Amino acid sequence: MNDSQRVLSLSISSNDVLISELSDHLNKNIIQIFGRCTARFDGRINSELGDGDRILLIKPDGTLLLHGFSGVKPLNWQKPGAGRIEFRIVSATDDNASWILEMYTYRPKTKESFSIAFDILYNISVFAGKDEVNLHIAGNEADLQDYLVTHPEVIEEGFKILDREIETPLGFIDLLGIDKDNIKVYIELKKGSITPADVFQLQRYRNVIEKTLLNEHFRTMLIGSSIADKSKSYLKKHHCEYKELKWQEIFPTIPRTKAKSLNQFF
Amino acid sequence: MNDSQRVLSLSISSNDVLISELSDHLNKNIIQIFGRCTARFDGRINSELGDGDRILLIKPDGTLLLHGFSGVKPLNWQKPGAGRIEFRIVSATDDNASWILEMYTYRPKTKESFSIAFDILYNISVFAGKDEVNLHIAGNEADLQDYLVTHPEVIEEGFKILDREIETPLGFIDLLGIDKDNIKVYIELKKGSITPADVFQLQRYRNVIEKTLLNEHFRTMLIGSSIADKSKSYLKKHHCEYKELKWQEIFPTIPRTKAKSLNQFF
DNA sequence: CCCTATATTTAGGCG
DNA sequence: CGCCTAATTATAGGG
Q1: CA distance linking residue B211 with residue B221, whole number of Å
Q2: Is the distance from CB of A7 to CB of B122 less than 8 angstroms?
Q3: Percent of chain A with pLDDT over 70
Q4: pLDDT at residue number B254
Q5: What is the pTM of this model?
Q6: Considering only CA atoms, which residue is closest to the C1' of nucleotide D11?
Q7: For a Cys staple, A118 with which of A35, A67, B80, B254, CB 3.0–4.6 Å?
């Protein structure tokens, strides 16, 4: 398929041809249907979507995305792993004057069914392409952990990291360090805001470590970029510490490749 | 705009016209660009996306979605709330033989920049439409909570609900009930599987309630659809209970409206 | 606006 | 495959 054939606009005038063409492109190319529709999803939840103009994307792996005119999340969707996607055209009225394009699929793994009914079709297109998905991400929690191992001084002066991913009976603690006074410090690391769940978790770990270390003095610390007052005082009350690290300020930007002329924007 | 004008395919031959047309449709209609591109996102995280064929959707509210050929999640995206989206065309080579379409936007609230560079454009389309988004969902946790309030007998015979959303020093407990022996039961409700975090949370709450109720006997219970063995035994060890509710079986299906002919699929 | 909690979370990693 | 956890989580709801 050369470049001029990357995009195909399907004719919506002939019903039989349309259904057969859609089937041809399923699991090969992206099928896109723009029209007015209703939808229904049943499975993990039941949802019913009233009339509206939407864009349906059907990816080659079977992913279904039904997008409205706002927001990041689709109105309805289905993950890959469903059975074959079926199309059919049914009469909307007794006199066969108008038609409805229906799509249906069922995903046995999660017992989910998803169906859409278009009563107006504005456009049906097919997109052919290749994408190796070469996505590099820098700055996630694992990267932050790496950074602290090589830059322990941002935690405290004279700080040293002894180990990471320390196993406890309850799971793993991100980091074990030692402060300038040779006191062990167990650290739970969060990229963003500290949630009550994080606080509970650290408190649990503290209880477990207490039993392990017996009378040895030690510290437990949550590192994150922000915390609610309520959580902060709760932590303090339970002998846990909070250290704020605005990682967006300290974490290095990934080196820019000469990504075409993109960087000229900056 | 009548139906025949819902979809517009922009000509990609004239650079100046293209940029001006794109600007015209921004924040009015959905702009869709299908082409070969690279992308870069900086802000909460830094990401660099290598060459590939993708579909870019720009919604009227400023939402940006860059989709590849598989999966539910976009490869890159940006939430609404960014500044104006800018387009420009730059020369890819010294002899001006080929061009690159660049898109850039910055979201001050989260200090995020997002840029995309298309070196091949297969298709640029614009979609006009209206969507009131009439989405009804049944079966989420709030519905399950409502259901238990009116059907407490599914928890235990002779059970009664006394209160909901009980405040603690850190967070809320979903339900407070009383069993057939007049023992108070504090309940944490989950739609799906119980996670270790849920278990910690309930245990914490139990400790807090212990101090409040002093010598009064009480029960604490996690309700969910499944649990790992490890969590189950941990719960038991800490005098917390687990009650399994396969809500998908007990929760009523939402009544089907005559959604065109959709239901004929079932 | 901050804070909290849910989600058809999705997706990845490990045992 | 189940379990666990991070995520540019997104998003809604409450104070």
Answers
A1: 18
A2: yes
A3: 92
A4: 54
A5: 0.94
A6: A73
A7: A35
What is the C-alpha separation between B222 and B250, in angstroms, rounded? 17
Average pLDDT of span B41-62: 96
| pLDDT score at B15 | 85
> Has residue B32 got a pLDDT over 70?
yes
Q: On chain C, which bases lie within 7 A of the protein's CB atoms? A: 1-11
Beta strand B76-78 pairing with B86-91: unpaired
Which residues in chain A are contacts of B197 at CB distance < 8 A?
A: 197, 200-201
Chain center to CA of A139: 16
Measure the CA–CA gap between B220 and A6, rounded to whole angstroms. Answer: 59
**CA gap B205, B179 in Å, rounded:** 19
Residues of chain B with Cβ-Cβ distance to A230 below 8 Å are 169-170
Q: What digits encode the pLDDT tens for the residues B166-192?
A: 988 888 999 999 999 999 999 999 999
Positive or negative torsion for Cα B199, B202, B207, B208: positive
Distance, CA of A120 to CA of B177 (rounded, Å): 51
Contact A127, A7 (CB under 8 A): yes
Query: Contacts of residue A42 in chain B, CB cutoff 8 Å?
Result: 253
Residue B29 three-state SS: coil
Distance CA A232, CA A222 (A): 10
Q: Indicate whether B216 pLDDT > 80.
A: yes
For the segment 148-207 of chain B, residues whose CB is within 7 A of strand D: 193, 195-197
pLDDT in tens, A48-67: 999 999 999 999 999 999 99
| Nucleotide C2, nearest residue via CA and C1' | A228
Name residue A234's amino acid: Y
Of B44, B59, B70, the CB nearest to A63: B70
